[in-house]
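Changelog-linked ticket: adenosine-5'-diphosphate example.
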Amino acid sequence: MLRTVHKTLEKALAGSGRRGLARYSLPFALLFVSLLAQYGISLMVPKGVDFPYVLLYLIAIFVAAWYGGYGPGTIACLLTMVGLPALADHTFRLTKVDPSRLLPLIGVALWVSKVSSSQRGKREVLLRARDELNQSVRRKREDLAQAVADLESEVDRRTLSEEKLKTQLGRLHLLDQITCAIGQRQDLRSIFQVVIRTLEDNLLVDFACICTYNPEAETLAVTCVGMRSEALAMDLALGENAEVPVDRNGMARCIRGELVYEPDLGQLDFPFPKRLAVGGLGSAVAAPLRTESHIFGVLLVARRQTENFTSGDCEFLRQLSEHVALAAHQTQMYEALQQAYDDLRRSQQTVMEQERLRVLGQMASGIAHDINNALSPVALYTESLLERETNLSPRTRAYLETTQRAIEDVAHTVGRMREFYRRGDTQPDLTPVDLNTLARQVIELTRARWHDIPMQRGIVIQTRAVLASGLPPVAGIESEIREALTNLIFNAADAMPQGGTLTVRTTSADGRVHILVEDTGVGMDEETRRRCLEPFFTTKGERGTGLGLAMVYGVAQRQNAELEVKSVVGSGTTFSLSFQTGVALAFASPPAAVQKPHSRLQILIVDDDPLIIRSLRAILEDDGHAVTTATGGQEGIDMVRAAAEREEQFAAVITDLGMPYVDGRRVATAVKTASKNTPVIMLTGWGQRLVAENDVPPHVDRVLNKPPKLQQLRAALAELLPEPVERAV
Ligand code: ADP
Ligand code: MG
């Protein structure tokens, strides 16, 4: 209770009120309470008991001094010592007041006030300190709360950026995965497929496709659609190869190189986004595929929900499209490189083949020369015997005729073998040839081979001519082309032992005219195709000579035509000859008429082959000529010079071309130097080539082929010596 009273008093007298009315009313109130207490106690205390009422007043004085301070304390003292006696006693005089009691009482009251005020001062300091402490604690708590809030927001921010990082890492991983996958592929289509499939699986898009851009038509062609997008693509009419015009919408921006994001397809008023929206798609991204400076396509992805692509998605698609474009560019470069490499290998192979053919040709030519030399005496004797020996038995004559035919056949074969090789620096006489006419002719000429003969075994070869109308004439040698085509048709017929179709086709393109012989026969394997043009290469054993295609090759070479062979084992073969058109053409001169033999001429024969000398001498002497022979170039020259010194000359000199030390050319020069009117006839195994190549040596009047024919020899002499020469050596 005392505590309650104390608190009430403290509260009532707190603050500025301490000096005010409450403080100064306190002594009066307390003394009043003391009076009341005295009265109350006096009623309760029995009579005669002396109660120390003065204690009540002392308590009132000390309470007034404690709570009220100096003033109220002093007032309480004065009231107790002066006021109350004055009120109770009319006779009271101030003089009656005992200062020895009053002053110590006032002194004690003042002391109590001082103690109280010092106590109070200390308490106030304490209170202030407590308030300050409270304030600082509050501030600290607020700071802490702020720090916690900051920390929480930082944690949120970090969590968010961590998630972002994780997403980015995921995208990077995906990008890496796609880049690796496309890096292992070399064709555009499979690159596109791998990209679309990965997008469908990992980016969870509802529709994905790649379109290629056609700048001329201003359209996009759908090149690759994802497997999961296929059904939707069908609904949208965006299946593979579908064409989409590039309208003024986002597609046009994409073609200009921008990445286009349409968050709400339904809101757009252009045909293409509308088409996507009708198919149930909400948002779409189109990323351009750019190589160097041009856009070659668009990567399109879409989802059903609107606003469903984040900026991270867009950035990822942009990077992906760059990678895809780069890979596509590299693929194109790789393909171009591969193409160049293949071309190079093909031309290298062609060069090698031509070189081999050239070497073989030279060899064939050398062999032909030797065979011609060896055949010469046989040919001459046979011809001479058949012509002069009138009393031959029919059997002998028949044998000789067979021998002569055989020699002619051999000479013919050797001729073809030799013709295989010609140097390309000379231009043979080319005439305009109509390949269509020639094709029809050759088909007719070879009918026996492709129709009649196979028919005997019940085999049918269908032959058709597919001829281009308005075909320009080509520059060529008709007989040679005819022979070449004949060979090609024979081969085609051989290649179809069970029958098939033989097509002779003519076409014209790029300023050239092509004639093709196609069959549906057995075809050739790579080795055969590579070697088929070589002379003597045959797969037909005894039946084949291996000279047919070599001859065709020679024909092509001489007429600047290109020969091409395409063959697939089991499917057939196509030979194509392509000729140039529009060449200035000249006709060959007609052959000279055969003349009768001269009477008696002095003829010098120069040859290192004794058999040829002997046979030539024999037949010329049979013709009535006087023959002198020399077995070498130098000996021949000596004889001519010796005759010239005697002021004589030979009517004609027949010399071989190739001889050791001094060859036919030097003999001819010496003859013309010694006697310029003496004609020189050169006999050679290379004859045809010399004429064709305009390589006839100077001072040679005529070149004759070995084996020589009596008729040709006579004709040459008649031509070169129109007037009989009677002078003898
Ligand atoms: P031959 O006909 O005497 O064998 P060729 O020079 O004409 O000689 O042909 C050489 C080879 O080329 C033939 O043996 C054959 O293997 C092949 N060949 C030529 N033409 C054809 C063809 N149309 N189909 C298949 N193989 C062919
Ligand atoms: Mg053949």
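Closing comment: Example verified and attached. Residues 583-596, 725-729 have pLDDT under 50 and may be disordered. Residues 487, 490-491, 548 surround magnesium ion (ligand 2) (CB under 6 Å).
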